[in-house]
Specification:
- The chain has a three-stranded antiparallel β-sheet with strand order 3-4-5, covered by helices on one side.
- Helix 2 (about 20-40) runs antiparallel to helix 3 and helix 7 packs across helix 9 (about 175-195).
- The chain folds into two domains: about 5-85, no CATH class; about 100-275, no CATH class.
- The protein is of the alpha+beta class and about 280 residues long.
- It has eleven helices and eight strands.
């Protein structure tokens, strides 16, 4: 086995390259320096070797200390994160995806959404077809090839039951295995209803699928009832954010999560508020 094969198996693309978190890297490098310094007091060569090994680990895997991504987000203050160009979590809406502006029109035209205002909802025919697809594949694990089709990707590498590395760089992660199965089923149905669905940019398709999951009435995992919680964060000197979280009442599995800018004063269902934000 060559060195490149070894490093490829050890590398974590979801935390390196374009996905590398600079605060995580700096914090871990600092920890490595402290530990190596302590070892150097006992044996300078051992300390130097340990530091080199730690830097190699950080380079290939993105971090040295397990759980670094979540620990960094939890314990580094916003002022420190801003020094590295990191801000608090903002809206998931991507206004730079121009095709997104036409998403609602496409869904109405394809009889995916019906009705207006507060009475808008998934069209009955789409809800039935989507439910049948979810039920038909409920017993099987989502394959990497299905995720590749979902993203129009050339390569997809599985990281867990609900997370994948797309095209060797982008990390795709779902709230639950049920959410992933629901997206694969919805994608298949939308391809039949919308000509050129696969030509929309990935961000737009992901936003549409998230919005549709916010309208699910039954859990893709256990068929329990889904409830959407709405919470607004209106902090001083910052734009207010409204978060939608769909969770199964029975099994507790998350089904969908989305955030928009502004106070929640729109009578329309979450799907429309999210896509039209």
């Amino acid at each position: 086995m060559s060195i490149s094969d070894v490093t490829s198996r050890f590398r974590r693309p979801e935390y390196t390259g374009d996905n590398r978190c600079l605060p995580c890297t700096v914090v871990n490098a600092g920890i490595a320096a402290v530990l190596a310094g302590a070892l150097a007091l006992v044996s300078p060569p051992l300390g130097l070797l340990a530091f080199a090994g730690a830097l190699a680990t950080i380079y290939l895997r993105g971090y040295l200390v397990p759980g670094t991504p979540s620990l960094t987000e939890q314990y580094l203050p916003p002022t420190v994160l801003r020094l590295f160009g990191k801000e608090a979590a903002g809206p998931t809406v991507r206004a730079d995806a121009t095709e997104r502006e036409d998403a609602l029109d496409l869904l109405y035209a394809a009889d995916v959404i019906a009705g207006e205002g507060g009475g808008a909802d998934l069209a009955p025919s789409f809800r039935r077809a989507w439910r049948d697809r979810i039920v038909a594949r409920a017993s099987g694990e989502v394959e990497a090839e299905e995720v590749a089709a979902l993203y129009g990707a050339e390569t997809v590498d599985r990281q867990s039951e609900r997370s994948f590395v797309v095209d060797g760089a982008k990390m795709a992660r779902w709230e639950s295995t049920g959410a992933l199965a629901a997206d694969v089923a919805a994608d298949a149905e939308l391809r039949e209803r919308i000509a050129g669905w696969e030509t929309l940019d990935r961000e737009t398709r992901a936003d549409v699928l998230t919005a549709l999951r916010l309208q699910l009435e039954t859990c893709p995992d256990c068929r329990g009832s889904v409830e959407v919680a709405v919470e607004t964060d209106d902090r001083c000197c910052q734009k207010p954010l409204t978060a939608f979280d769909a969770v199964c009442r029975d099994c507790g599995e998350p089904v969908a999560s989305a955030t928009i800018t502004g106070i929640d004063d729109d009578p329309r269902p979450p799907a429309l508020r999210f896509l039209d934000a």
